[in-house]
Predict the structure.
Amino acid sequence: MANGKFLLVNDLILDENSGDLAIDATGDLVVGDAQYQCQKLVIKAIKRQFRNHIEVGVGIIYFLNDDSELIHLQHEIQKQLELDGYRVDLININGNIDLTVVAEKVR
């Protein structure tokens, strides 16, 4: 926390549909609060996918068909987000179709 407040994660925003850089109506790149986007990338990424940080990534795709691994998935999400500077308040997994994460960047 900076001065008792959560940090804003301003970064380039990715297009939700294509995954490419988002571009506004004037042709400029979109910059904004990217906390949710960063969390989503960490959860989807597979370890070694980021060359400079090979240990980053949950690899959620490997957990999708195995209900017995849901507790391991929850622990891995918490660990990865905390390593990335988030305070994780809630992780709720309902089967293989619904994942809710409440986390705020604190460092």
In short: The helical segments are 35-44, 70-83. The CA atoms of residues 23 and 29 lie 5 Å apart. The mean pLDDT is 84. The two ends are 6 Å apart (CA to CA).
